[in-house]
Input
Amino acid sequence: MEAQWNPTSYPQSPSVVFLLVATSYAWLLPVASPQRIPTDPQAAPEYAHSIRLDGDIILGGLFPVHSRGDRGTPCGELKKEKGIHRLEAMMFAIDLINKDPELLPNITLGARILDTCSRDTYALEQSLTFVQALIERDGSDVRCANGDPPIFTKPDKIVGVIGAAASSVSIMVANILRLFKIPQVSYASTAPELSDNTRYDFFSRVVPPDSYQAQAMMDIVTAMEWNYVSTLASEGNYGESGVEAFIQISRETGGVCIAQSLKIPREPRPGEFDKIIRRLLETSNARAIIMFANEDDIRRILDAAKRNNQTGHFLWVGSDSWGSKISPVIGQERVAEGAITILPKRASVDAFDRYFRSRSLSNNRRNVWFAEFWEENFNCKLGMHGKRPGSLKKCTGLEKVGRDSSYEQEGKVQFVMDAVYAMAHALHRMHRELCYGYPGLCPRMASNIDGKELLSHIRAVSFNGSAGTPVVFNENGDAPGRYDIFQYQITNRSTAEYRVIGSWTNKLHLKVEAMRWRTGDPSLPASVCSIPCRAGERKKVVKGVPCCWHCERCEGYHYQASEFTCELCPYEMRPDANRTGCVPIPIIKLEWHSPWAIVPVFISMLGIIATSFVIVTFVRYNDTPIVRASGREMSYVLLTGIFLCYAITFLMIATPDVGVCSFRRIFLGLGMCFSYAALLTKTNRIHRIFEQGKKSVTAPRFISPASQLVITFSLISVQLLGVFVWFAVDPPHTVVDYGEQRTQDPTSARGVLKCDISDLSLICSLGYSILLMVTCTVYAIKTRGVPETFNEAKPIGFTMYTTCIIWLAFIPIFFGTSQSAERMYIQTTTLTISLSLSASVSLGMLYMPKVYIILFHPEQNVPKRKRSFKAIVTAATMSGKLTQKGGDRPNGEVKTELCESMETNSATELELG
Output
């Protein structure tokens, strides 16, 4: 009798499987004696659970012919496309190879094709069939019922396996195949985990891994300028590995944040998909949903979004499990509108279409599941033994695929054929190496095909596949990444279809202009946590979420140095209008047309005209008694100082340069120094004359005009000496003061072009003149008792009192505005007007009365009799008592007399100026 083995009772843990296979698998394997094969025509054939094709070299095949079963049953409904189309593609490829005289000549390929039922554990049990021939059998302890030794059926020796489809199935099967060094080439498994050559070293695939797909999806997200997305994965290796690869790439490249990463359970409970939609809406800004999910889950997610009135909200980005399939979007086109999907680049194999359309019940008996496919495809029943229950119409057997039923080539047919051809090309290379010139299999290959050596040939193949695309493998057994990018669009005719909008081959090529979103909305949708900051704003990132931020404007003199930082502009610069850079601060100076300049210039011009008029008048009447009595030499010195006080206004307003700055230093204090040195000399002279007259009739020393000029210019030379020392210590130059008008608003900031004269330097320059002014005022006070009819002491006194008041007002105005934004204008105007007012006071009080007499009362400008110095001093002393006498005499009489006396006798007589 046959030793029996129940596959469904086999342990599901891979480690247990390996242990059992290595120790006791020999006597558990199914056996069948040729004499004991059932002869009942109604009985199931020996290989009813698999397809077996005879050949010199046998390849294994794993296909999801049936879906996952429910309630503990391993298998469910038949899969027409993913199951039947794919396994037929393998058999079709084998047929083509066996007919090809160039590829594996005189060698026939066979196959052993198994059904995985879309379940990894069941597939593991089925794959044990592939390793039977590699296990040594010991039948010494096994006996038939009649005592005869058992007869074991010789199992097929599988040299390589084509499959599986699902990544979870390939992972499970790869674990056992690697133990027996059987190479495996998958046509649909894309999990990145399978790229680990240390764990799955005998695994290869003709489809690119999801790591490429994840990179392509990341490039799509980046091209769409989305930086805030959620991920959704079906539980299992495919979905979880794909999402993990996408998340890993997002971490490495940056710029894309994952709002939520949700998982769809294998066995979802009622309301699970509505719950997922609500969870996704918690981060409503993350509209883009990256999906690595099977088509059933995709359909149910779209349905849940439709039920929750979220049509048009989510931006779906689907993996190759969605691709260009119609089944997930039927009936929910609006909610799927705009979905971007990705699919490995492929083409339809026309030869397979002709082959498959020609299949029938009569010419396809090798496919043990073809009868079931026939019933499913044509919705009929094959006699009383048909597997479809119910009162369906009876199949005639004359139905035709593509004529009596819809037909569209399944997307992975090309890859199934490429996988078979990859194995065939590797065997061909191996045959040339081991059996060169030998027809058919030589003993070295017939006895044993080394799996490791075959693997090296598989990894080295390079040929054009069934669709004309190159088939190559990298060091990990992965195919290169080549994808087509689709978008599900609804046209104006209200018809929905997938349209190719780009491709990815190590680099994204996307035609954004070909993309269409919600009907009537041409704008590019957004999936961002925060809107981009405007120019001049920096991002203040939310902790832990680098794609979410608050925008903060760069304030003050700061500009946007980078996406996340604001930096201070250099001191001489300010932010530009967009605050993305710095521009030089405009440089200004006091312009001639400014109101701050017009007023002092007007006063100065009037003063210069008046001073020039006085000078001309004095020169014209130089020898008249009034001019002579005024002290001609000292008058001209004083008038020169007054003129300089007016003229300095033009230097203060002129555009600063080295020459202007040099003249400012020289003349800023020189005009005042001329004026007050002359007045100080005159008041000191008057004071000394009358003090000396109280003691002696002898005139004091140094009262002659020459002496007075020497004293005056000696005082002026001190000012000039200080200026020259200043030149030596700090040569004049211009500076741009950016602090003077550095306002809170950078747009109002200005740099002020000025001479490098500090407030301290200015005070030092004017300080000597102010000292002369104060000293002169002291002498004016001391000579206030001198009779007015005898001298100019009182006009000089009034002049100095007024001047002191002007400069006392100047100091708080000048220094009180040092922090004002209008400092340059206020201080320059204050200084120039103060100088002009000082000059005007001196000019008006000391010279205008004389000019008035000279021009309008020439009768008073006549010489008088001479008096001795003693008589003059006595008259001055007694003038307080002789008020009537002093009032009767005309103004200037005494002065004229004194002047004339001095000219005739300078030793004994005195001119009182």
Q: What stands out?
A: The longest helix spans residues 595-620.
